Amino acid sequence: MSNTNNSLTSLALQKFKKNFWGVLSFWFIVIVGFVSVFAYVITPDNSQNANQMHLSIHSKKPGFKVVMLSLPSKNETAQSFFDKLFFGKINQTEELPISDYKIENEVLSYTEYASDGLVGQLKTLPLTTFPNQEVQNYIKEKTFLFGTDKYGRDYFSRILVGARISFFIGFVAVFISLVIGILLGSLAGYFGGKTDAIIMWLINVTWSIPTLLLVIAITLVLGKGFWQVFIAVGLTMWVEVARVVRGQIIGVKEMQYVTAARALGYNDFRIITKHILPNIMAPVIVISAANFAAAILIESGLSFLGIGAQPPMASWGAMIKDHYNYIILGKPYLALIPGLCIMSLVMAFMLIGNTLRDALDVKNYESS
């Protein structure tokens, strides 16, 4: 039995590797996951939520360059290495976009950046403002790869940091849906009778409520916030998992290996967890991949409606909400870039789900 399972697993893995779109989707998801975890290492703006604002350079086109003057802070808040790595640096340094500067008589004179052909205000600073009077270390040209948003924030940094919410909501929501769905589906399918009737009634009631309305209701009860959205999405996605698990268990609970386990005196918990569930996980894995994509879309919709991740937290759905009116103002990329990111990640999960469905289909190996 063990050798058969191993051979089927190896066959499924070989078939998965032969699917170009499945492998491509897998590596794309791996890259997005890496970016999500180490976003603050990669982003040009490593402040918390990439929230460094420069209103004078708002809504600039991709590739925009400007000279940036950084004013050092005298009171630095201590942060651990891991805090900076995973949550960003507490922003205490003021950055000023400038168009020109000169140093004379121990004084730095600079002209603030101004758009639309206007001339910025001329200001001065004593060189003693900078440690060891090393002014050049605090004046650097900065390039905004994706331009800036309407608040003058680095859009590329916001996109990378925003990947965290879309990526991790899939994991959290799918984990919650698997825990609840497998538990209730196993109880309904294995025991049947009144247990099945009660759980199916709960499934049908939950199924009859539109997903977005149910998520909104749960979010309003739990409150607005990062983790509240994750939990709300997860609590609405368990129904499909429960139905699949219930149907699979009904189909296999009378098979010989389950009857043999009962005859050996094993309890119901062991029979379900050790004998039945390992043999029905293929369709559950496939539906989990689809739920990843659904969770990303639901979170994006909630953020667009303003009840998802709250500002200044970066979220692809919130970015579309903030900039969708720019589509008719000549800067459609501000809404299209996060939209393409959502579409790409959802498509990757759907493609990998389809590939897993074909690779894990036992019927394909029956003749071999």
Q: What's the CATH H-level homologous superfamily of the largest domain?
A: MetI-like
- Here the CATH topology of the largest domain equals MetI-like fold
Lateral arrangement of strands in the main beta sheet? 4-3-2-1-5
| Structural class by secondary-structure content | alpha+beta
Number of domains: 2
> Architecture of the largest domain in CATH?
Orthogonal Bundle
The helix tally amounts to 14
Strand content: 5-15%
Radius of gyration: 27 Å
Membrane topology: Multi-pass membrane protein
Organism: Pontimicrobium aquaticum
Protein name: ABC transporter permease
Family: Belongs to the binding-protein-dependent transport system permease family.
Structure description:
The protein is an alpha+beta fold and 368 residues long. The protein has two domains: 2-34 and 157-365, MetI-like fold; 54-149, no CATH class. The protein is built from 14 helices and five strands. Helix 7 packs across helix 8 (226-236), helix 10 (256-263) runs antiparallel to helix 11 (268-276) and helix 12 runs antiparallel to helix 14 (333-359). The longest helix has 37 residues, at 155-191.
